[in-house]
Amino acid sequence: PANKIVKTGNPVREDLITLTVDKKDAVSFFKLIDGKQTLVVLGGSLGARRINQLIEKKLKFFKELDMQIIWQCGKLYYEEYKKYESDTVKVMAFINKMNYAYAAADTIISRAGAGSVSELSIVGKPVVFIPSPNVAEDHQTKNAMALVAKNAAIMVKENELEANFDSIFSDLIASKKKQEEVAINIKKMALPNATKDIVDQIEILLQK
Question: In the chain, what's the furthest Cα-to-Cα distance?
């Protein structure tokens, strides 16, 4: 029943809610170049094969855009992709300090699971979502579309990557105005008090 539904959002780690890491320090932490556009690629802890394949194929394209990359490829794929490690490409199975990764990022490529969307809304950076089509009821696409509808993110479906990724990504990087718009709009959708709101609701139920 509608009167029983409470929208709280998802709990997000505290260090993201109060993102105090300096961008310069974050870039230095990953041994990257200060002042260079930084792309952070997130495929989840296990990794996302289709995103990894895309990044591998587009390394030259990103270089032409003068971007450096923090590429979290997932533990299932690290052995396959670690050969691409360089001064401007940092390949990682897992990122332990996500607050540093988010602080370093100018742009982010990510799946669109609920946890990722919640974190990225709080972080407030331009995001290109590539939803996994292999999930129940295609919910990642629906998550991403909810943000795209409010000009709060960009989405490229897996089956459209070949045809559309280059032009969509290039357009985003070329337009500071577009980057600022989506960053501001995704931040507006953040629910940073989710943990407290959930606990408050539990307390209310316990008192009944």
Answer: 61
- Read off the amino acid at residue 109: I
47 forms beta bridges with none
* Of 99, 107, 88, residue with least CA distance to 19: 99
pTM of the model: 0.94
Q: Which two tokens stand for residue 10?
A: 């998802």
Handedness of CA 43, 47, 50, 53 (dihedral sign): positive
Q: In what order do the strands lie in the sheet with 107-110?
A: 89-92, 67-72, 37-42, 107-110, 127-129, 154-155
DSSP state of 130: -
* 40: its two tokens: 């952070």
Please write the tens of the pLDDT for every residue from 7-31.
Answer: 999 999 888 887 889 999 999 999 9
CA distance 142 to 113: 10
Which residues are CB-contacts of 122 (< 8 A; sequence separation ≥ 6)?
A: 12, 16, 17, 19, 187, 190, 192
Looking at residue 48, the DSSP 8-state letter turns out to be -
Q: How far apart are CA 108 and CA 6, in angstroms?
A: 30
Per the prediction, the chain carries an average pLDDT of 95
Q: What is the pLDDT of residues 153-182, one digit of tens each?
A: 999 999 999 999 999 999 999 999 999 999
